[in-house]
Design brief:
single chain, alpha/beta, Rossmann fold, 7-stranded mixed sheet, 22% strand, disordered N terminus, binds S-adenosylmethionine
């Protein structure tokens, strides 16, 4: 077993990655916080479907392997009219297809979620660990695209890892390093996680430092971007960490319920 110092150093092989590797991706998502975001997100979907009292349409942007389907009850699935999942990785979509089977209500599209256009608007848009995978300069277009695909009375469920506040590139590096170093220590010390998920979390941190594949934001920047896209936050729930491991309470894993302004 590697020492804790090894894991927090970020010095791991670039070849060992969850990017486009569905098996490793599903594994690294199986940690406290990531699971709770999907659980909380699926509750919002059920609540919305019950509230509107009709079958609903869903667009899932950056849907990946469609892990959220594991958290949706049969009660919810009975309330589903149609479900479109969009992702840029065909390998992830192939894995998503295994979760969906032959259910004709589902459509998976291999496309850039910023440029994707669909002729209809949706009741619910899921953006689970999606915004932080879009390059900074394209984030406004991504959010505008979400707005344009949302019905006027629809909701968006954002699930996001929010890093400490930063005001420049160097501080952003430090923020991402603090976020992942503490996350790794929490996994090892408080949740007995000692397998390859630790190396995969180091890989996430390294992507942030390399400015490749992962571009996380701090809380006020994310909410500012939402407001600029005419999206209003209805509720926010922080699901990780439960303990105070960051000095700023607005750091961790969050589920944002959002509507059109
Ligand atoms: C962290 S995963 C989230 C997957 C899934 N939503 C979940 O919560 O498990 C991020 C996903 O974004 C996808 N992605 C990255 N850039 C994208 C883009 N420009 N358009 C569509 N998908 C993108 C990746 O392929 C990956 O599946």
């Amino acid at each position: 077993m590697y020492s804790r110092d090894f894991y927090v150093s970020g010095s791991i092989s670039a070849d060992f990655t969850y990017k486009d590797n569905a098996e490793l991706y599903n594994k690294v998502e199986d940690i406290p916080g990531e699971r709770e975001m999907l659980i909380q997100g699926s509750k919002h979907l059920l609540d919305y479907a019950k509230r509107v009292g009709r079958k609903i349409s869903i667009l899932d942007v950056c849907c990946g392997t469609e892990l959220i389907l594991d958290f949706l009850s049969s009660d919810f699935k009975n309330r589903l009219e149609s479900f479109v999942g969009v992702d840029i990785s065909q390998k992830y979509l192939d894995d998503a297809k295994k979760r969906i089977g032959s259910d004709p209500r589902f459509e998976l599209v291999n496309h850039d979620a910023v440029l994707f256009r669909h002729p209809r608007k949706f009741d619910v848009i899921i953006a689970s660990s999606a915004y932080h995978h879009i390059e900074d300069e394209r984030k406004p277009d991504f959010l505008n695209n979400i707005f344009n695909h949302l019905k006027d009375d629809g909701i968006v469920v954002f699930m996001e890892n929010i890093i400490p506040k930063y005001s420049n590139r160097v501080e952003r590096d430090s923020a991402a390093i603090e976020f992942y170093a503490k996350r790794i220590v929490d996994c090892i010390d408080n949740h007995e996680i000692k397998d390859e998920r630790i190396s995969l979390l180091s890989r996430v941190m390294q992507y942030e430092r390399d400015r490749e594949y992962e571009w996380k934001s701090h809380y006020s920047l994310f909410t500012k971007h939402l407001a600029a896209a005419d999206l209003e936050v209805i509720s926010v729930k922080k699901v990780w960490p439960k303990e105070k491991i960051f000095s700023d309470n607005n750091v961790g894993d969050f589920v944002f319920l959002v509507k059109k302004k």
